[in-house]
């Protein structure tokens, strides 16, 4: 455990000034800030007469739509490669695996650091979505964002989105270990992401077996639930089923690829 903590801390110090770290922090801030400006600057009278719940759903839904379809998978591709690119560029893999720390600790720390960056990114999306939404109700009182609270729902949605991304993270992490250059894992990730969006977008019945479809499937399941059970006054009553079919498959992919990746890298590292 001590070796794992030392390796994890080392990953933080090596990457704290890189784009991998700052993209996880700045992406949520920039997207939520841009949406804030868009809502603040709009002169759409329809928004002014919308109840708070609908405004919040539109605000949060605009971010979730792009996150689930394209941005999150591509962010994972970038983070997974960036965590391992330092060792590739400096050619320090042999040095890293020769340290008096178990190879599992080194491999696990790198993986869970990438895991940590994705988690932090999605956590910040929750905080910034709520923060900018409530700020809108202060600077533009006509937009009644403060009339409704979706903290619990939003946290569950992003937790589901996070879990749905773990299969992609494991695959891209392994690819970034196996290939030194950026183009191969990036190219594979990009093609797989577009394929996943097409499969999920066209409602292919076996899309849940393809990990790169999981984020979009998670968002689609949320949209469907919002229309199924209208609450009092016809307002959407949102139910979030976190552990749905695609989540279990995502977790299974993550576990299997993580174990396979460890043995592949272990064998490669002793050559």
> What Rg, in angstroms, do the CA atoms define?
20 Å
Secondary-structure element series: HHHHHHHHHHH
Major sheet description: none
Note the overall shape: globular
How far apart lie the N and C ends? 26 Å
Task: Work out the helicity level.
Answer: over 70%
- Approximate strand percentage: under 5%
User: What class would the helix/strand composition place it in?
Assistant: mainly alpha
Count helical runs: 11
**Total beta strand runs:** 0
Describe the structure.
- It is a single chain.
- This protein is mainly α.
- It is built from 11 helices and no strands.
- The longest helix has about 40 residues, at about 50-90.
- The radius of gyration is 20 Å and the shape is globular.
- The two termini are about 25 Å apart.
- The model has no long low-confidence stretch (mean pLDDT about 80).
Topology readout:
Blueprint: H1 2-15, H2 19-41, H3 45-48, H4 52-90, H5 93-97, H6 103-139, H7 151-164, H8 166-178, H9 183-201, H10 214-228, H11 245-269
Quick tags:
77% helix, mainly alpha, 271 residues, globular
Question: In short, what is this structure?
Answer:
With 271 residues, the protein is mostly helical.
């Amino acid at each position: 455990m001590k070796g794992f903590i030392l390796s994890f801390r080392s990953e933080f110090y090596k990457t704290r000034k890189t784009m991998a770290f700052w993209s996880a922090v700045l992406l949520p801030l920039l997207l939520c800030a841009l949406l804030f400006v868009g809502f603040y600057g709009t002169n759409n009278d329809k928004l002014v007469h919308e109840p708070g719940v609908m405004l919040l759903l539109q605000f949060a839904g605009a971010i979730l739509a792009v996150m689930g379809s394209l941005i999150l998978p591509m962010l994972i591709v970038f983070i997974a490669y960036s965590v391992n690119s330092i060792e590739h560029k400096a050619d320090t893999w042999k040095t890293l695996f020769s340290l008096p720390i178990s190879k599992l600790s080194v491999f696990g720390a790198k993986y869970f650091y990438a895991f940590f960056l994705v988690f932090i990114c999605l956590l910040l999306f929750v905080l910034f979505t709520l923060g900018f939404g409530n700020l809108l109700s202060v600077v533009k009182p006509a937009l009644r964002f403060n009339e409704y609270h979706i903290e619990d729902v939003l946290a569950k949605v992003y937790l589901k989105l996070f879990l749905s991304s773990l299969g992609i993270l494991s695959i891209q992490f392994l690819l970034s270990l196996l290939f030194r250059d950026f183009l191969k894992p990036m190219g594979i990730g990009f093609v797989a992401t577009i394929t996943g969006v097409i499969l999920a977008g066209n409602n292919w019945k076996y899309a849940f077996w393809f990990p790169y479809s999981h984020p979009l499937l998670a968002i689609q399941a949320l949209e469907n639930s919002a229309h199924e059970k209208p609450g009092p006054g016809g307002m959407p009553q949102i139910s979030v089923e976190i552990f749905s079919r695609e989540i279990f498959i995502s977790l299974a992919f993550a576990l299997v690829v993580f174990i396979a990746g460890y043995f592949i890298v272990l064998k490669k590292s002793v050559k």
